[in-house]
Amino acid sequence: MNWYQLDVENVERKLHVAANRGLNEKQVEKRRKQYGANELEAQRKTSKWLIFLKQFQDFMVLVLLAATLVAGLLGEYIDAIAIMIIVLVNGCIGYFQEQKAEKSLEKLKELSAPMANVLRNQKWSKIPSKQVVVGDVVRVASGDRIPADIRIVQSSSLETEESALTGESLPVMKHATAIRKDKLDAQDQVNMGFMGTLVTRGSGVGIVVGTGMDTVMGQIASLMVNTKKVMTPLERKLSELGKILIIVALFLTALVVVLGVMQGHPVYSMFLAGVSLAVAAIPEGLPAIVTVALSLGVQRMIRKKAIVRKLSAVETLGCASVICSDKTGTMTENQMTVKELYLNGKQLYVTGDGYDIRGDFFLTKAKLDKNFPNLETMLLYGMLCNQASIIVKKGKHYIDGDPTDGALLVVARKMGLTVSTAESYRIIKELPFDSDRKRMSVVIEDSNQRRFLITKGASDVLLPRSMYHMDEDGRQLLREENKQQIEQAISDMAEKALRTLAIAVKPLSKHDDLESAVLEKELTFIGLYGMIDPPRKEVKSAIEECRNAGIKTVMITGDHVKTAKAIADNLQVLPENGRVLEGQQLNEMSTDELEEMIDDTYVFARVTPEHKLRIVHAFQERGHVVAMTGDGVNDAPAIKASNIGISMGLSGTDVTKEASSLILMDDNFATIKSAIQEGRNIYENIRKFIRYLLASNVGEILVMLFAMLLSLPLPLVPVQILWVNLVTDGLPAMALGLDKAEGDVMKKRPRSLSEGVFSRGLGYKIISRGILIGIVTLLAFMLTYQDNPNNLIYAQTIAFTTLVMAQLIHVFDCRSEHSIFSRNPFENMYLVLAVISSMLLLLIVIYWQPLQPIFHTTALSVRDWMFVSVFSALPTVLFGFSKK
Questions:
Q1: Residue pLDDT, tens place only, 623-652
Q2: What sign does the CA torsion over 193, 198, 200, 201 have?
Q3: Cβ(382)–Cβ(503) under 8 Å?
Q4: Beta-sheet pairing, 466-471 with 523-532
Q5: pLDDT at 101
Q6: What is the chain's Cα-based Rg?
Q7: Which residue pairs, CB below 8 angstroms and at least 24 apart, start in 582-587?
Q8: What would the DSSP string read from start to end of 539-572?
Q9: Which residues contact 667 (CB under 8 A, 6 or more apart)?
Q10: What's the mean pLDDT in 388-412?
Q11: How many other C-beta atoms can be found within 10 angstroms of the C-beta atom of residue 271?
């Protein structure tokens, strides 16, 4: 029902309630049963056991569990236990990371109004907001959050801040009169109050017409129910990789076993070798290392004020090609700031943004003398005709009350005026601001008992009521040319998307009538305030860095087009030929038309939640990976539909946080740039250890395969293959996940969604290095066995050592896309320590006598080590001079 179209009497009649009595207990009980609790439906929490078990449903983990079963049946209990430990560690890491993210999110939750002031049985009382029912009469005042959707029946200068719901940054003046228009959007229903919005000024009474999911906030939240969650690129790539690996592993394992049996090797020993090779071909450390790499990235991002809710979503930022950003509170401070003043026929400029009280006044480029005529008077009057106050918390300044009034207080403080300055003035009468009068007035008495009226309001209202104006010589008659000058100043400020507020004064005597109709005439015009919600300081450079990285930034806002365009120009979001679209234009466009012009559009103004969804989908249809940022409920459906949703931790609503994959704890757009850089680096690090693990494992398989083809004895026994995996696949691979980004990571274009894991030459690098590692290992084995045909264990030890050392040298080559010589190996000390640790594990099984029979090894001489060093270094050194 369109409650905004009904008179108050009709609303009372339809809901069977009187605004001066409220509901009785019987009615309340009946309606609670009918409508349920006044709260948004939360998604059912998954039990901890299910979350834990979910960690083991991954395709590759299931393969590992199958390998464990086979190894156990064959009596290889050490192998089975090792695999089980890796699987369990992987599951525990994923489980605890999910739990940690959810606990962090719980701390952020700040649901709408916890208490509501309701009238029941003609008595006002405070109750938990979830107990509010349809038909309840509620009272709200400055600082309250509206507990449900209400039809306002009484308004006393009532203003609400609805940016979280509509995207509109300025407070909305509310009234109780019915509106006779059809199909009004929420932001235009000015006789309604909406659940979760904040009362910034005045007070009012309303009748509840919607609770819980039947509110505007609830309807927006319900849009997400049918919004499909997009699978991340990493999830797709790992799924592809798993399928490829299992097919290759099974084929090569079967080939080795068949060839071995055909050449007379015992069936049991060949089957055991086959199982070992299968374990080698499937890098059992990969799922765990991917999780660890993502977890380490998450920890780094938490230190940079970003909480990641979904591990696999981290790297998606790395291939984001479009950031759709909400303007209010994300790109801007959400703090009204006076930037310009007009008085004495001159334009003055004010420095400082937000509620920082530091700042100066300039006339063109010259700093003003503090004695500039009328400036202090104008700022003092702005302080006196004011209902806000400045609060200091932990050294920071905050505004209690209307942001516009707050902006006047802050600019007065920049001049050095404080609360004590105004103490010698007494307010005799206040004529509050309302949407009909578009002005506010106060009657002031100074210490000498002289009275005067201060009026502030819309310039088009105050100018016709002014007979005089102030200039450097004092009060002068307001002539036509003076009016034209003032109107030109108003126009100039409007072009910069500055909101203008005029201020005027009138001397009074003690006998003057204090009725507003008589008072607010024959005023003396003093000047204009020009104010705006300023952009965040860090945003411009962050947008520039994103542009250099091939990422387009798009501003989406509920604000008017002029304001949005001015902010976009200021932040350099809008290029010279960039397009600006309004919500009304979107309504008239088909999906195909929107997709056709979406790539040329950089600013969307006066948009609704449905528009935001359309915009995200249009970019996705054009092949873009979309990151959507925002803080309001109105952003939540688009955030969920995007490839990576980013919400604001400080100002963000619960619904938005639940829909997002990434929460910015400092609400800082610049943090997104850091997150993108981190995402790209994480993905590159994952590619590094995929390259390292698979090249190493290809080498292991080929050693065995070539040996079978050449009718040679087994160069590696199964336990050696397992030890190679343990020594080389563990710590070095994890240390690659800690590698710092290469210098050009933010100068590359975003990855395409269609890009495979093995793209950009990775497949070639894996196969070429793997083949060479296999060849040098087999050559070392053949030459040693040829010279010592009666000492197979000695030849196998040489092959075993060559294979491990070749892989440990190769790990340094994996750090760069280009060549081992292009990066300093000591940049990553974790990797250096990991390689040293792996070498120690190798030395233990070669030289510690109790382990030699188990691992089929024997001690090596210095000459042997020189031989091994030359062969193991060959694959890396030979390819070090190649760009491929």
A1: 899 999 877 666 778 888 898 888 887 766
A2: positive
A3: yes
A4: parallel
A5: 45
A6: 36
A7: 582/606, 583/607, 583/608, 583/611, 586/611, 586/614, 586/615
A8: HHHHHHHHHHTT-EEEEE-SS-HHHHHHHHHHHT
A9: 329, 330, 631, 648, 649, 650, 651, 652
A10: 86
A11: 17
Encoding tokens for residue 247?
Answer: 């097919």
pLDDT per residue as tens digits for the range 44-77 = 566 778 777 777 775 545 655 676 676 677 676 6
* Residue 92 phi, psi dihedral angles, 5° rounding: -65, -40
Predicted TM-score (pTM) above 0.70 = no
Place of tokens 């369109």: 2
Looking at the annotation, which residues are catalytic? Answer: 326
Distance CA 149, CA 151 (A): 7
Note whether 742 and 817 are within 8 A (CB): yes
Answer whether residue 239 shows pLDDT above 70.
no
**Hey, CA dihedral for 841, 844, 850, 856, is it positive or negative?**
positive
The number of residues making up the chain comes to 884
Task: Identify the residue whose tokens are 């269609």.
Answer: 754
The pair of structure tokens assigned to 411 is: 């600019």
**Cα distances (angstroms) measured from residue 474 to each of 482, 483, 501, 739, 819:** 14, 17, 21, 69, 77
Rounded alpha-carbon distances, angstroms, from residue 385 to 256, 358, 453, 507: 90, 22, 9, 15
Query: pLDDT tier at 414 (50, 70, 90 boundaries)?
Result: very high
Above 70 in pLDDT, residue 114?
A: no
- Cβ contact 13:108 at 8 Å: no
As a dihedral over the C-alpha atoms of residue 580, residue 582, residue 583, residue 587, rounded to 10 degrees, the angle is: -90
Residue 432 has pLDDT above 60, yes or no: yes
Structure tokens at 408: 């006047």
Query: Nearest 5 degrees, angle CA 57-CA 60-CA 62?
Result: 50
pLDDT attached to residue 375: 93
Mean pLDDT rounded to a whole number for the chain: 83
Q: Classify 57 as helix, strand or coil.
A: coil
Strands of the 306-308 sheet, one edge to the other: 306-308, 662-664, 644-648, 626-630, 322-326, 552-556, 601-605, 579-582
Cα–Cα distance for residue pair 147/144, rounded to 1 Å = 9
d(C-alpha 870, C-alpha 191), whole Å? 84
- Residue 845 near residue 851 (C-beta atoms within 8 A): yes
Task: Please list, in sequence order, all residues whose beta carbon lies within 8 angstroms of the beta carbon of residue 85, skipping any fewer than 6 positions away.
Answer: none
344 φ/ψ sector (left φ>0, alpha ψ -120 to 50, else beta): left
**SS3 state of residue 148:** coil
* Cα–Cα distance, 694 to 673 (Å, whole number): 32
What is the per-residue pLDDT across 187-234, written as a single tens digit (0 to 9) for each?
889 999 999 888 888 889 999 999 988 998 888 777 655 545 455 556
| Distance between first and last Cα of the chain | 67
* Spatial contact of 155 and 204, defined as CB atoms under 8 Å apart: yes
- Separation of alpha carbons 520 and 466, rounded Å: 9
In whole angstroms, give the CA distance from residue 195 to residue 869. 72
Q: Residue 387: CB partners within 8 Å, gap ≥ 6? A: 201, 401, 402, 405, 440
Compute, in degrees rounded to 10, the torsion defined by CA atoms 237, 238, 241, 245.
180
Q: Are 234 and 643 in contact (CB under 8 A)?
A: no
Task: Return the minimum-mean-pLDDT range out of 24-28, 48-52, 474-478, 695-699.
Answer: 48-52
Token pair 């995929």 in the structure block, residue: 690
Segment 793-818 mean pLDDT: 91
Q: Which 8-state DSSP code applies to residue 860? A: -
